[in-house]
Amino acid sequence: MSRFAICFLFAALCVSGWSSAQAPNKRTADNAAALYSLALEEFERGLPGGFELKSSFPGMGARALTNGEVLVIVDGKVLIDGEAEQKGREAVEKTVLARSLFAQAATRSRCVFQAASPKERDHRRQALLQLRELVRFDAQLQLEEDPQAACEGACTLLHFCHQQSAVIQLGEVEALMRAEKNALDLLRLGLEALRGERRWRELRGRYAAILDQHLARRFRGHDVKAAILKEVVDVVELHRPRLRDMHMHVEGGFDQNKMVARLHEIFLQCMAGQENSEPSLAKRLATIELRLRKTLPSPLPSASVREKATYGMAQLILPQGIVIDAQDREVVAAIKRCQAVLAKERRR
């Protein structure tokens, strides 16, 4: 039995016992939050001190990096080559149960954590991202030794991306799409390695179904209007002290309600007519960004403080839709490359 199968069975037994003791109802059982909490407890217990994983992206560092590379960092130092692999393998061996729990949690239909402080939410988010990257690092190690385990790891990452897409803020969409593309690139490499297996026909049917499902449901069900209108309120409240200082010498001072109302008016104008067109999330955000440029152009030096402040808040509220749309096209292309591999016959 492969290491992947042993880990999965061990985690299933543990979680089965835990679930029976809790006797949850169906809605609770569909929620991944409890499983993720267990996974993070195991992860933080087994993770070596000072160990960190990050996914690289263009322009993030001084040395030349491959886009999507998993960086192994110990005590703030980025390790390379053999040293990075050694430390990464050590972390993989110490987090077997955590990664198995993560894999199970990623298949649940929803993920809603209990209310927590901003500090606690940020800590949990960072820990989940660390665990996600460790799952990817382990899958990369498996490409030559056990390509099916690598493919299963990549599918776990795709499930996680879909699950997180339902709860993240619009400003986090681009980063999640980068993670999605990393998972797809990994899956393609695993599939290429699997083409030599006798069970290729059976396996390609399984992974084709997973890809079709992922493509059909990715980034669906977002209420963009509600998200942006809420973001207006949150961003203006966050920057209220600075806005108040900016308006110190303006007659009447800073009126928070009026600024929120003005920004709502602007964004509603930019979103008009989109409800029935049902474009992809990425194309919808790109369209809103283009409309915003026309509706609220960059203010001239002679513009009033209120005009400049309104423009500045609008730029903070709306994510870079055009950049997200470009990233989305890369993801769709990565899906098609995986499908092209699945269309091939077994390599003899």
Helix count, per DSSP? 15
β-strand number: 3
Q: How much of the sequence is in beta strands?
A: under 5%
- String of helices and strands: HHHEEEHHHHHHHHHHHH
Largest sheet: 3 strands, antiparallel
Radius of gyration: 23 Å
The shape, in one word, is globular
Helix content: 55-70%
Assembly form of the protein = single chain
Structural class: mainly alpha
Total individual domains: 2
Summarize the structure.
This protein is mainly alpha-helical and 348 residues long. It has 15 helices and 3 strands. Helix 3 packs antiparallel against helix 5 (96-106), helix 5 (96-106) packs across helix 7 (147-165) and helix 13 (281-295) packs antiparallel against helix 15.
Description:
This protein has 348 residues and is mostly helical. The chain has 2 domains: 3-222, no CATH class; 224-325, no CATH class. 68% of the residues lie in helices and 3% in strands. It is built from 15 helices and 3 strands. The protein has helices spanning 3-22, 26-29, 33-46, 81-94, 96-106, 118-145, 147-165, 173-194, 200-217, 224-238, 240-246, 256-271, 281-295, 305-317, 321-342; strands spanning 51-55, 70-74, 77-78. Strands 1-2-3 form a 3-stranded antiparallel sheet, covered by helices on one side. Strand 2 and strand 3 form a beta hairpin. The longest helix has 28 residues, at 118-145. It is globular and about 75 Å long.
